[in-house]
Amino acid sequence: MVSKIQQDHQRFRHIVRGKIRKDLRRFLTRDELIGREGKRAVSIPIHDIDIPTFRYGDNSGGVGMGEGDEGDPVGGKPGEGDNAGGEEDGRHILEVDVDLDELADILAEELQLPRIKPRGQHRLTTVKDKYTGIRPVGPSGLRNFKRSYKEALKRQLAMGEYDPANPVIIPVREDLRYRSWNEVKKPQSNAAIILMMDVSGSMGDEQKELVRLEAFWIDTWLRRNYEGIETRYIVHDVRATEVDKKTFFSIREDGGTRISSAYACCKELLDASYDPADWNTYLFHFSDGDNSSEADNRACVKLLDEHLIPRSNMFGYCQVHSAYGSGNFVNVLHEAFPKGRPDEDGPRVITSRVNQKTDIYDSLKTFFLPGR
């Protein structure tokens, strides 16, 4: 019975995965999906999956009571009354919880993303409890039935109490065995994600929503590839400052734009907290491409070339469309790094354009297809 239930559950999960893969572009653009995020899972409404259930209704019009011929509908003719029912099938909606790691795997399969190869020496370690042996004392929750049974059997055999005709094994306290554990230090690949966003007057709510969706999927994919993740948030207009996640996605400024302020703030974070020998660092900047001057463009290129790119796995620039932004900064990057400043693993400076929600699918593929 248990195996049958497990088979049904696996079949259901397979159906859910198929539905998600079929409509992945639509799921990538659903802002309400992010609002349903739990600790490491999201609740996704899936259409057209109907789970059989018992339904209880009004049985007052029993079969065989009253007038009528065989085959007549119960309760009147079809279409009678002021609120006559329609004749089309309804769309069944079922909410399912999907683990974010599973969602990331679906994303990787559909976008054909390679697994990321961590860089650095990975000197950081985590301490985990690992069950490594058996001991005669411990809490009841760690009791090992198989080992306790063996100890009782050996005792009864040694004492001549075992009867093959009536093989009853009764453990006593001295027979009980419990699992034991040790603390194990395990090397861990860590990653830091630094998200930077232009919050000047030309970046409105529509642009921030695009950033919010893109940042969610960036975070989901990187967490699937690394055991330890830290995310830091920087906002900027003419000045830059580090903020928390909630502020990052809600703040609204009304000033000008100096992009170099964000890159200088990012450099300070890297200097203070993220040694490239220990951390895989991912930098992402979101902007509408408007900057204050050519002099600041040159300052941005200098900061990237000398400080940020050498210390990071990749620098991703995502330009979101705005009716008020010039959209020129992406061209500055293309001119300064015509091939994305490649190394043996491919380009380290990667740019994408997101004009609307449907572009997020291609933007994610652009960022992570190199497998950096």
Q: Any key phrases for this structure?
A:
single chain; Rossmann fold; 21% strand; 372 residues; alpha/beta
Radius of gyration: 30 Å
Tally of discrete structural domains: 3
Structural class: alpha/beta
Low-confidence segments, ≥5 residues, pLDDT <50? none
What's the architecture of the largest domain, going by CATH?
A: 3-Layer(aba) Sandwich
Tell me, what is the CATH class of the largest domain?
Alpha Beta
Strand content: 15-25%
The main sheet orders its strands as 7-6-5-8-9-10
The SSE string, one letter per element, is HHHEEHEHEEHEEHHEHEHEH
What is the straight-line distance between the termini? Answer: 46 Å
Largest sheet: 6 strands, mixed
Shape: extended
Total beta strand runs:
10
Mean pLDDT: 78
The CATH superfamily of the largest domain turns out to be: von Willebrand factor, type A domain
Helical coverage, percent range: 25-40%
CATH T-level topology of the largest domain: Rossmann fold
Total number of helical segments?
11
Outline the secondary-structure elements:
Blueprint: H1 2-22, H2 24-28, H3 31-35, E1 41-47, E2 93-99, H4 100-111, E3 125-135, H5 145-159, E4 178-187, E5 190-198, H6 205-225, E6 228-236, E7 240-243, H7 245-248, H8 260-273, E8 279-287, H9 294-308, E9 314-320, H10 329-336, E10 349-354, H11 360-368
Parallel strand pairs: 5-6, 5-8, 8-9, 9-10
Antiparallel strand pairs: 1-2, 3-4, 6-7
